[in-house]
Amino acid sequence: MSHALLHRPAWYVIGPLIGLVVVAAFALINERVGVVGGISDVVERATGRRPVLGWKAWFVFGIAGGAIVFRLLAGGATARTGHGFSWLTRELTGGGGQVIAGGVLLGAGVLIGFGAKKAAGCTSGNGLGGCSAGSPASLVATGTFMAVAIAVSFLIRAVT
Amino acid sequence: MTRVRVASALLGAGFGFLLSWAHFVDPDQIRRMLLLQEPYMWEMFATAVAVGFVAIRLMRRARVRSLLTGEPIAWSVARPERRHVVGATIFGIGWAVSDVCPGPLVALVGQGILWTLPLLVGVALGVALYVRREEGPAPARVPRERPGVRGVAGPLPASNPD
Predict the structure, then answer these.
(1) Residues 6 or more apart from B156 whose CB is under 8 A from it?
(2) Rounded distance between C-alpha atoms, residue A66 and residue B111, angstroms
(3) Which of B3, B76, B107, B116 maximizes the CB count within 10 A of its CB?
C-alpha cells in the first residue's frame, strides 16, 4: 500500500480522479471547488467579518485531513522535508540564508493570497472549478497565471 | 447545514489525498512543470478539467439535482475584468517563486512540512490585506447566522469562484 502511494499514478488515472472531485462538489452541494475562498473564510471568521465558517472552510480543513490520512497510509511525505524543500531553500543555505528563504516564502505567500483573492480564484477555484464551468473570467485568469508563472520560473532559472 | 459541512470536508479530504498522491504538493515537480521540463502535471490538469467540463454539463442537461441541497445543478460564469488579469499576474509571481499554490499548500501543512508555515502565514496575510483593502476595517461585531438562512455571511457575490 505505502509503496504504491509514494509513486505517482499515471496522469490519465489521477487527472480524471481530481476531475471527479469537481463533479462531486456539484453533485453533492452544487458548488464550485476553491481553496483560497476557504482560507479567506477562516481569515474573515478570525477577524470578525464572518459569523460562521462557510462550506469552503470545511473543504480546506478536509484537504489537510486528507493529506494527513495520505501520509499515515503512505508512511512518508510526497515533498522533500528539511532544507531540501524547494529551489529556494537549497539556494539560500546557512542560518542567514534560511531566514531569508523563510522571508521570501512569506512574501510569496502574500502575493499568492492577495493575487488569488483579486483574481477571484487560484489554481483550484479558477483553474479547476472555473475552467470546468467554462467561465471566461476563469479561463483568462488561468491563462494569465500559467503564463506569468512560466515566465518567472525561466527568469529565476536564468539568474540562479 | 451540518450535512453540507461534512460533505465539504469529505470532498476536501479526497482532494487533499489526491493532490498528495499526484505529488502536486512537491515544489520540485511544480518547478519542472513551469519550466516545461515534463508534461505530467499539464496532462493531469487538462484531463481533470476535461472530466469536470463534460460531466457537469451532462448532469445539467439531465436536470440532475444536487444530493444535499436539492437545487438543480447550475452555475454562473463571469466576464473577464482587469482584476482577473492583475490578480492572476500577482498570483503567478508568488506561485513561481514558491512553487506551491493554495490547495497543495494546505495539503503540505497536513503532511507536516514545516517550510510551508511562512507560506501559509503569507497567504493569510495576503487574503486579509485584500479583504481589508476592499471592505475596510472589520466590524466590531458580526451577528451570528441563523440556522437555515443561507448567504447572510457571504461578503462576496455567489458567482465568485475563489
Answers:
(1) A37, A120, B162
(2) 9
(3) B107
Question: For B103-112, what is the mean pLDDT?
Answer: 94
Number of folded domains that form chain A: 1
pLDDT of the residue at A127? 96
> Which amino acid belongs to residue B128?
A
Domain contains A136: no
pLDDT digits (tens, 9 = 90+) for A17-55: 999 999 999 999 999 999 999 999 999 999 999 999 999
Domain-embedded: residue A117 = no
Alpha-carbon gap: B14 to the closest alpha carbon of chain A (Å): 6
Residue of A nearest to B57 (CA): A133
* pLDDT number for residue B144: 56
* Number of neighbours of residue A3 by Cβ within 10 angstroms: 8
Is A35 part of a structural domain of the chain? Answer: yes
**Which of A12, A35, A160 would you mutate first to test chain B, the one with the most B CBs within 10 A?**
A35
By C-alpha distance, the chain A residue nearest B82 is: A119
Domain that holds residue A5: 1-78
